[in-house]
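Example record used in the benchmark description.
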Amino acid sequence: MTPSFRLAYVPGVTPTKWVRIWNERLPDVPLTLVQVSPAEAHDVLRAGGADAGFVRLPIDRTDLSAIPLYTETTVVVIPKDHVVAAVDEVSPEDLADEIVFHPLDETLEWERRPGQPAAERPATTADAIELVAAGVGVLLVPQSLARLHHRKDLTYRPVTDAPESRVALSWPEDATTDLVEDFIGIVRGRTVNSSRGRTPTPAVKEKPQAKAKPAAQPKKKPASRPKAAKRGKPRRRS
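Model output (structure tokens):
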């Protein structure tokens, strides 16, 4: 049976770079991408629907391992004619009177301020986008999802002091296969010459043989200079 590798990923994550490296290093092992919603990603991994996956934290680490990769900025999606569209960034206080959507398929939570209107959570980000376009409320999502669901009539702004979205590579802890280790190495940036999870033993260079020192020659004593003849006192002529 030809080995294969199934990689799940949630919307907003772009696994293209890692897939390209995989195809270069393991051309005989096909990689299949499986798009899943954040809400179902964990169950897909547990059920064996994928060997590993890019998910959004937090996850239950009782039976799943995870390597945090990066953190995304949280933005608010608003109509282009919304009052906060005139500023570069938004604070939570600016949204105090708004109905803030955070869909069921996202793990990003928003602490509703006292007096802030409550809203039912839309099932998906796409559903929430439609509500925002209809002027019903605003949407809080990771920036990659705002780009993914871009529309001409909507825009987005970064939200200061908002909960951030963290992306991680996850896999079932009891199913850490050799192929999973290979993909972990790719994500961590290991070179093709690195062994899985271990630091390769450096090649030992042979030390050049020391050249034999020539036999020590006895030191020659410097030739002694002839002693100068003693000069007597000049004789006096009688």
